Prior knowledge:
Distance between the termini: 24 Å
Structural class: alpha/beta
CATH architecture of the domain at 92-238 and 373-470: 3-Layer(aba) Sandwich
Strand content: 15-25%
CATH topology of the domain at 92-238 and 373-470: Rossmann fold
Amino acid sequence: MLPSFLASTRCQNNSPVATLFVSYCPLRSSFGSLAIQSEPFSSEHGDHPKPDGAFEVNGILKLASVMLVVPVLFGCSPSTPVPGAFGPSANAMSTPSGHSVPSAASTPAGGAATTGGPLILGTLLAATGPLASYALPEFAGMGAAVDAVNAAGGVLGMPVQKINGDSGNTQSVASLSLERSIDKGAQVIIGATTSTMSLSVIDQAVAAGVLLFSPSNTAVKLSDPAITQGLYFRTAPPDSYEGLVLAGLAFDEGKRSVAIMQIDDAYGAELADSFTLAFKELNGRVVAHEVYNPAASSFADNVAKVKAAKPDAIVLFGLSESTSVIGNLIDAGIGPQDVTLYLCDGNMDNSLADGLPAGALEGVKGTIPGALADPQMQAAFLAVNPSLTNFVFAPETYDAVVITALAAEAAGSVAPTDIAAQIPLVTAIGNTACTTFAECLNLLKAGKAISYRGPSRARALLTNGDPSVAAMGIWQFRADDQIAPVDEVDGDVPRASLA
């Protein structure tokens, strides 16, 4: 029997998974035509070389120093959303993990009175600062989505308007940009690029009554409706989902006793906690759990304790210091070629191999959140920005815009609270499925309840803002020390999200 909080998971071809709570499907052959991308990119973890031959790199955006751990995890009762944040209560049904989502009967059939218009979208994406090059695909995703919506007639019969803003990498830049978008009439802000910036301006957005919709935030703290007040959504999954997927990967590959090495910060703690709970639910054992100081000159003492535990595999939740940790593992005779090693988004990139023996990382797998853009979506993004060399979070940004537009149509209103009330409804599981704004719009006009299924594969967004189903990429180091995708898991986000 599957643990109550684990996902019923499907692969990209939508075939059901037969084993455990996650399983892995070969990438669809249609991805074979994707362009080789080898340009470097930046994320909150620093500068990353772009993996040669990869379809895209979904290096997740997070700043470990400001990540906060939410103590409510998988087995705990979810928090109650803020009363009144979404207007009248809707009927509900449950996802496989017990999340409450609106039922098909709850979606309006087009009878709501129109309030205002046009729909004005501000952006709070990193146009400047160290993440500016990294946010280029997000801007392209937004542009492609606005083009698609307006080509289908816009929202409430009017073209969607777009205000370019900048989250930068400081609270002052983000706050000023948000204020300017609000002053220009934006009802919804697409962003911020980083969890840090969203957390820094969420109070300002709530006070102004505007909706934030991020394509790339993963901090678990943003799952708390007491903070976001019903005015925040995201298409990227929270960090808790990554730990769950890693646990399933290790268990599916026959690992029954693992050792965890974890950086001493909130990012590492969240991943380690979610991994441990999921792995134990699968009847696996965590035989060692070493928390280390990333500034230490050596990790030999931690490694010695891991070696003494004789694990089947080692899971390393770390950042740039992971290269030194792996060097110590190799010195101790338990390197990746001796004991299976699993990595996370914080260290799963080409720069990890710098300073290690050639081929030392061959075969090592890790997780990177986000969906892979198929050739059709890549073409749409390149039409906006032909110089793009990767599509990081472009699908998630695209869907943030389309979901917002559909919610406004369903509500017959561009008021932020009306849009927020409809977002869970237009993405709900069990309604009539549709994959484009135009198709979904026609269904809404026909009085149908819809289930938008876009390129991000984020589905059934909850009233706390989290997707209840999301995508996670499985990547692997090749013999040339470059990472490449091997699978994508579309699964149920755990109840660490406080829906």
